[in-house]
Amino acid sequence: MDAAIATKGLWQVFGANAKTALGEALKEAENTGATSEDVALGLRDKGLIPAVQDASFEVQSGELFVIMGLSGSGKSTLIRCISRLVEPTAGEVLIDGENILEASKRRMTELRRDKLGMVFQHFGLFPHMSVAENVAFPLKMQGAKASARRSRAEEVIRLVGLEGREDAYPRELSGGQRQRVGIARSLAVNPDIWFLDEPFSALDPLIRRQLQDEFLSIQASLSKSIVFITHDIAEALKLADRIAIMRDGRIVQIGTPTEIVLNPVDDYVREFSRDIPKGRHMTLASVMDPLNGTPPAQDGPALNTTMTLDDALANCALTFEPIPVRDGDGKIVGVVRPEMFARALGEAGT
Amino acid sequence: MSLAGAAAPARRRWHLSKGALAGLFALAVGIICILMEPVAPWLVSWPKGWSLPASEWIGDGLGWFLAAIKPAARALSGLLAYPMDAANWLLGALPWPVVIGAVTALGWYLGGWRMAALGAIGLGFILGSGYWAESMNTLALVFVSVPLALMLGLAIGILAYEVPRAKAAVQTLLDVMQTVPTFAYLTPLLLLFGFGPVVGLIASAIYAAPPMARNVLLGLERVEDEIKEAAIMSGGTRRQQLFLVELPAATTQVMIGVNQCLMAALSMVIIAAVIGGFNDIGWEVLLTMRKAQFGQAFLAGLVIVVFAIIIDRMSGALARSRSPRDMRVVWGLLGVSVLLGILSLGRLPDPASFTLFDPAAGAVDKAVGDFTAANGILLDEVKNGAMFYMLLPLRIGLDQAVLPFTWGFQWTPTHSAFFFAAAAALGGLFALRGRIATGALIGCLAIMLETGISQLPWPFLIAGAGALGWMSGGWRLTRFAVILLALILVSGLWERALLSLYLSGAAVFACALLGGGLGLLAAINTTAWAVLRPVCDMLQTIPLFVFLIPVLMFFQIGEFSAFLAICAYAIVPMIRYTRHGLVTTPADLLEAAEASGATQWQTLRDVRAPYAAPTILLGLNQTILYAFAMLVIAALIGTTGLGQSIYIALGSADVGLGVAAGAAMAILALVADRLVQGFAEERRHALGL
Q1: Which side of chain B, N or C, has fewer Cβ within a 10 Å radius?
Q2: ipTM for the predicted complex
Q3: Predicted confidence band at B1 (pLDDT cuts at 50, 70, 90)?
Q4: Segment B388-391 long-range contacts (CB within 8 Å, at least 24 positions apart)
Q5: Which residues in chain A are closer than 8 Å to B249, comparing Cβ atoms?
Q6: Quick one: average pLDDT of A213-229?
Q7: Structure confidence at residue A126 (pLDDT)
Q8: pTM across the whole model
Q9: Chain A nearest C-alpha distance from B238 (Å)
Q10: Do A126 and B248 touch (CB under 8 A)?
Q11: Is the pLDDT of residue B13 over 70?
Q12: Domains plus CATH for chain A?
């Protein structure tokens, strides 16, 4: 089976005559064996801007694929290439095996009407339409009848928890509510593929966490194939099945959250994961020694390979006796169990 | 010259800044021209024999072309006569209670009681003035021309937006449509469409379309990218994206366009009255002005102003978000007025018989007469003083303007020598202190003052414009300015162009000083702005034409009156932009200045003024364009130069002269516009905006 989304050797170069310059550079690289990094350097010397360089990855059906990078790393350009909001300079974008870069205008419109949904960082709501009209807009493009549009719109609005605000206008909503409308609109036609361009970046931390959780629960029931853009490593680790890390237009590493935290390919990626509480993302499997000879006879706490280090530590600490705690005069005023340390520290990291 | 000041001190002596180079070049050309005058007089005044008969060529070429498309134009004219007649008949036949009721209801719908009252009182005033029929004729013209202008503007705006390659061409076209003086295209239109109101209709549609087109383009470009992308990702076709999402999302800007389009149409409809043949309110003003019935002219002018205010405020309300109104009030108002109209059918007094304000008009007449009689000497002194000591020297130079009769002594070559020596000393002093550009500028100004703008050597002027272009926008702008000015030079219209340049230059200079000062005052003193703001609003609402009435009342026909009228019209943008630029300095910059211990004056000079510079330059740009626009209208009350030529051409149906002079005028305006915009752009760039 084909991957839901695949890109092969995708380039986006900005500047005059970018297409010719890139074509020549790539042909030359084929002969000389130069890497894509060399090609990008050559283009920069000519005054061109290679915003996305040789991006190749696959997103499986139902997978939540996060692209993470700082601003200017090309992640927003990349998602616009995949959704063909900008025309990539070279490469292929396959949606269910179909190269959409060769699709006609009409075919592209069809794909967007039936198969693709997108959420934007600043919501992209139509200011002159009510919530219900915004959500129903993609259905209108499909040619659905007014009554059918309204009932489907109400259904999705309920899904994102905005029932009762159907007839409000975007300007009357808070940021969090606006993005709920954006999410509802992108889901209205029940697309297979869901693009989210930094959907929660413009929101307050509290609202952001709330929407992240709701997003995860929506995804749990809908299982879309998702490309999700963010600049926040914590968000990436929390949501992703797999993460691609971008730097200066290049994808430097693709891996599961654990792989990213545990085996960063270079200092750049390591720098990202440095502030991440490792105990919450690493599992025992990643630190244990393989069994050598007979298992230890000791009957310890119940541990398994998928447990995070935080949980494992707490479980291990359970085996210790309570320890007395004294005040300034040396009088015992309480007891502490080591397991309490582990839990408190684990919570502090959230 | 801030550019020279920006050069690093250490490199000052070795490295000339752009401004210094440009200034020195222009100065050198000027000095050479003056020194060479005795041996090569052609360096100063372009010999008549070298001029091409551009007017004749254009006249012949256009005449042939116009004759070719005349049948089509006449057919169009016939076609347009239908809606024209219908609107005319409708507004003329409707009993006035119905019209007043309808406008009041519209006012209520758009802006509640205030707007309804504005409509009712305004139309009541027009009714009472006795100019009802004339006003309805004007209104009919506006009603028919505006939809044309709106459609044209919308189409042009969308075209420029949809076809990026066409954008530059379209914008130039819009510039030309707006800078070619309105009178200039009345002449060919007159030949094409024949005598009658259709000419006014089409002229006003041409004049009113550009603001609509610009605002449509601006609005569409300003729609957030993500909104456009959301429309694409929703699977809309291009047409669906445009009409269902992008245009509606740009509504506010488009409505500003509608407002400006209406105002421009009204202004032009009134100007078109000069061709006559249509009993409208503009004609009435012209007629009474010619007969020196200032009271009546003033009254008719007020009717126009009231019209302008009603149209402006009501259409301005379109661009603001408004709460939904109770439609029952609208229907109620309409019902009552229709009922009144039916009940009183046949018994209504003829609106022309209303003369409520005639006593007032008479009183104005008398008051003006008394005032000018009592203060005639003072008024004459003001006028003569301004003419002899400011305008004339600017026009023909100190060497000719200084006469025993006015100044008390005769200017001689010795005076000139001293004058130039003083200027050279002052300029040299600046140059020695490192401010070479300022020094060169002083030299150029001295030449200008001594010879007079209308007698400036042509190489000096063209070199100066080219040097300014190079400073503000590089070689492209230089080429643009030099080629276009050279076109005027060889067309034989150079002398008249210089006369126009002198008058508008003097007015712009006065506006820049006074308007800049007032803008500064308004920026630091809120009370001053509270007073100035309604005045500015008012001055911007009044159609150009009306400015002529009050100056004519007090200063009669002449260049000084024209100068005043131009200033009154062109000063507003200078005030507005100066204030706007100064008050919109970001708060954190002001706080940083205050935290550094700057006084209010220091903050103004060192933080606000530099930050506001690009905005103020844009204001100056607007002032220049306004001055050129008014210059042609002012030809009605006595100016020389291109405006006069255009006006004469209109009277004698001389297409060649009219179009050539109009084109020359447009060239002056366009070159000035591009130069100032270049400087504004350069400043903005320097500030990283």
Answers
A1: C
A2: 0.82
A3: very low
A4: B390/B506, B391/B503, B391/B506, B391/B559, B391/B560, B391/B563
A5: 126-128
A6: 93
A7: 94
A8: 0.81
A9: 10
A10: yes
A11: no
A12: 58-87+104-115+191-276 (3.40.50.300), 286-290+298-348 (no CATH)
